[in-house]
Structures are given as C-alpha cells and as structure tokens.
C-alpha cells in the first residue's frame, strides 16, 4: 500500500517532526506541504535538517490544495483545523495535531480556548483503554497535547487498576519547542537558558481538562488534577512527575505488578527496571515513553515519573502511530524506539 500524505503547517516544529518521520516511513509518499507566512519558501530554508525534502516549496494552506491525498496531517494553530476539516470529505484521513477535536465537553473547551467548540474525534493515544478500537478504520484523529500524553501514560495504569484515589498532583517540565516556532518574549534564548520557570499555575493550563478527561475515563469516576507545567532550558522533552494518594491496602508489589501487566505488550511505553529513573535525554527523537513507578509508603502516595520527546511521542510520533492503526498498517511502522545519546 502506498499512502499519499500532505502536511499542513510544514514550516512549524510539529510539521517538521511529522515530515522527519514520514520521510522514512516505508508506506508513505509525501505530497503537498503547506505553510502560512512562509508559503512560497523552500522547505530547506525553514527545516534544514530535512535534507531529502530541501527543494520542496510550501504552498498556502487551503482545503483545495490538501484534497486528493489519503492522509492530511494538520499541524496548525488551535482553531484553524475545523474549517479545513469541514471542507475535506471523509474519504481522507485527517490527523489533527492541534487541540480542536480533543475535548469531549464543550464547556471545558469554552473555558480554555477562545474559538467556538468544534466537536471531538477519536483520540490518538492508542495505549488508553479502548483507544485502538476507536482508531481502527477512523477517518478523523485528534492527536493529544504533549503534556496529556506524558501524564496520561504515567497515571492511567494506576487508575485503570483501581489503585489510586481520585485526586492527582502533577508537576511537569517541558522543553521550549512545546511552545512552537513563532517568537514569544518568554522564549527568547536569554530568558529560557539557565532557568526553570512555572507557568499556567493553579489549574490555568489548557491541558488540565484533557488530562482530567483521560484519567477519569480510565478510573470510571471523576479524577481531579492539580497540574503545574514548567519551562525547562532544553529544546525537546517532557519530564512529568505524577502522584496520587494510594488506595488503602495498596502494596509496592501490587502497584508494580499492575504497571507490568498493563504495559507489557505496549511497543512504545517502557517501564524501567526497578531503581532506574527516566530522563528526557534518553527519549530524544524516539517514540518511546519511559516510566518508573514507586509507592512512597510514608506519604501514602503513588509516584510515577514519565519522560517523552514532546515532538515525537508527544505529537508527530503519536500521530503516525495512530495513522498506522487507522489505516490497518502495523502500528510500529516508520517509528523508532531508539533515542540519541549523549
Ligand atoms: N510543539 C509541540 O510540542 C506540540 C504542538 N502541538 C500542536 O501542533 C500544532 C502546531 O504547533 P507547532 O508546530 O509547535 O507550532 P509552530 O508555531 O511551530 O508552527 C505553526 C504552523 O502553522 C502555520 N500557521 C500559522 N498560522 C496559520 C494560519 N492562520 N493558517 C494556516 N497555517 C498557519 C505556520 O505557518 P508559517 O510558519 O508559514 O507561518 C506553521 O507552519 C499546534 O496546534 C500545537 O498545539 C501538539 C503537541 C505538541
Ligand atoms: C512549553 C510549552 O509552551 N508547551 C505548550 C504545550 C504544547 C502542546 O502540546 O500543545 P498543544 O495543546 O498546543 O498541542 C504549552 O504549554 O502551551
């Protein structure tokens, strides 16, 4: 099978990472690439690491240009995908890396985003209970946010096994590429280098309802989440430290056994051997989520640390993994679990 794929937002970080993966996907042929302010430019001027595609020219983003492909990846700012989706028929598989179709509750959307609620699509985190069956054969995929990927993979096994009380506390650090390529004052090199800074504190970050949605579905009851994101002086990576009160009687052995049982067949989630802890460097450029879990018996809390590359498993890798499932291809095709070191 040859799958012809277009990428809208090819000049951005997410679009660039999608192209890095598609360029070595054995079943994909790369079709039209679009941008906005950079339309008309050669890709080589914007994404110089994508050498085989350097001479490709970006077209303006429009449904007409994206039509006629088997798959269209949308790596556009929030609020831009719905209009494109409406114009493209259901014969094309649309994979949206933005937030537009992630939330099932319109009220959550309206609280955190400033465009009208567009609806929800099958959610592209295949590891969550029931996700693979909703992705198989679908023509619409909502790729999760990068923090929700790291946090949901860390905590869903504890909730699905009924081991955690329904309030979680998460502190996560992200590399600066999570904020996209367009210039922002707090992302100037001199502001980011040498500092860790919190933002979106106190329930204000828009990923909070998405994390709650995922953990509540796994738990079968409403889970509350206190989520504190921080910006770290690195280009890529998320390290999420996630804790929840353990249910009475939970032992370290039962906790570990639940994680082993839930994750043992997952190609892209790896529970590390006891005593080893994840780090962002290890997953750089790979589609792997690394996890470690322990029980802090004195505090009565489950502690899970997860590391992902925000652009790979946190966006483009998750998008390609979900595309593979939707098209009936082997889930691991075109995706590497091998990182880059040092
Ligand atoms: N960065 C990350 O870690 C993650 C990003 N995402 C999501 O992926 C999407 C893209 O993010 P990211 O790549 O980081 O952002 P960037 O700012 O790096 O890229 C944005 C892209 O969208 C294009 N664009 C901007 N405005 C418009 C518009 N009005 N109409 C059409 N195209 C437009 C830009 O084109 P041009 O440059 O030509 O102006 C560029 O190609 C976002 O929805 C983001 O939330 C999801 C998970 C993680
Ligand atoms: C460091 C940084 O700024 N990260 C981004 C999250 C990136 C991501 O996953 O987000 P989307 O929901 O935009 O797809 C943020 O906190 O807004």
UniProtKB/TrEMBL annotation:
EC nos: 1.2.1.38
CDD domains, sorted: AGPR_1_actinobacAGPR_like, AGPR_1_C
GO molecular function, one term: N-acetyl-gamma-glutamyl-phosphate reductase activity
Keywords for the protein's UniProt record, in alphabetical order: Amino-acid biosynthesis, Arginine biosynthesis, Cytoplasm, NADP, Oxidoreductase
Gene Ontology terms: biological process: L-arginine biosynthetic process
Pathway: Amino-acid biosynthesis; L-arginine biosynthesis; N(2)-acetyl-L-ornithine from L-glutamate: step 3/4
SMART domains in the record: Semialdhyde_dh
PROSITE patterns listed in its UniProt record: ARGC (PS01224)
Primary location recorded for the protein, binned into one broad class: cytoplasm
The Semialdehyde dehydrogenase NAD-binding domain, residue ranges: 4-136
Superkingdom of the organism of origin: Bacteria
Pfam families hit by this protein: Semialdhyde_dh, Semialdhyde_dhC_1
EC primary class: oxidoreductase
Entries under InterPro entries matching the protein: AGPR, AGPR_AS, AGPR_dimerisation_dom, AGPR_type-1, NAD(P)-bd_dom_sf, Semialdehyde_DH_NAD-bd
Positions of the catalytic residues: 146
Catalytic activity from the UniProt record: N-acetyl-L-glutamate 5-semialdehyde + phosphate + NADP(+) = N-acetyl-L-glutamyl 5-phosphate + NADPH + H(+)
PANTHER family listed in its UniProt record: N-ACETYL-GAMMA-GLUTAMYL-PHOSPHATE REDUCTASE, CHLOROPLASTIC-RELATED, N-ACETYL-GAMMA-GLUTAMYL-PHOSPHATE REDUCTASE, CHLOROPLASTIC-RELATED-RELATED
NCBIfam families attached to this UniProt entry: argC (TIGR01850)
Family membership noted in the UniProt record: Belongs to the NAGSA dehydrogenase family. Type 1 subfamily.
Known role: Catalyzes the NADPH-dependent reduction of N-acetyl-5-glutamyl phosphate to yield N-acetyl-L-glutamate 5-semialdehyde.
Record protein name field: N-acetyl-gamma-glutamyl-phosphate reductase
Species annotation: Streptomyces oceani
